[in-house]
Amino acid sequence: MKNKKASSKFVRVKCNCGNEQNVFGCATSAVSCLVCGTPMTRSTGGRIVVLEDKAKVVRELE
Ligand SMILES: [Zn+2]
């Protein structure tokens, strides 16, 4: 498996329901929780913003 360098990073986000998932830091659309469907982020100009009342950042993955 080739380790392709990406200029963008992923962010690990935890939903209020307890689900954790990796979110592409430069996603161009909102990301919803895969378990409960709650929107966890919104996109502003090519960078995501975590909705702090719905989810929180666990850690950032380079
Ligand atoms: Zn959830």
Describe what this molecule looks like in 3D:
The protein has 62 residues and is mainly beta. The protein has a single domain, classed as N-terminal domain of TfIIb, CATH 2.20.25. Helices cover 0% and strands 42% of the residues. Strand 1 and strand 2 form a beta hairpin.
Q: Which hetero ligands occur in this complex? A: zinc ion
The CATH architecture category equals Single Sheet
Quaternary organisation of the protein chains: single chain
CATH class: Mainly Beta
The CATH fourth-level homologous superfamily: Ribosomal protein S27
Helix content: under 10%
- Rounded to an integer, what's the Rg over CA atoms? 12 Å
Strand runs, count = 5
- Main β-sheet: number of strands, strand sense, barrel status? 3 strands, antiparallel
Helix-and-strand structural type: mainly beta
In short:
The chain has strands spanning 10-15, 20-24, 41-44, 47-50, 55-61. It is an all-beta fold.
Based on the model shown, name its key terms.
mainly beta, N-terminal domain of TfIIb, 3-stranded antiparallel beta sheet, about 60 residues, two-stranded antiparallel sheet
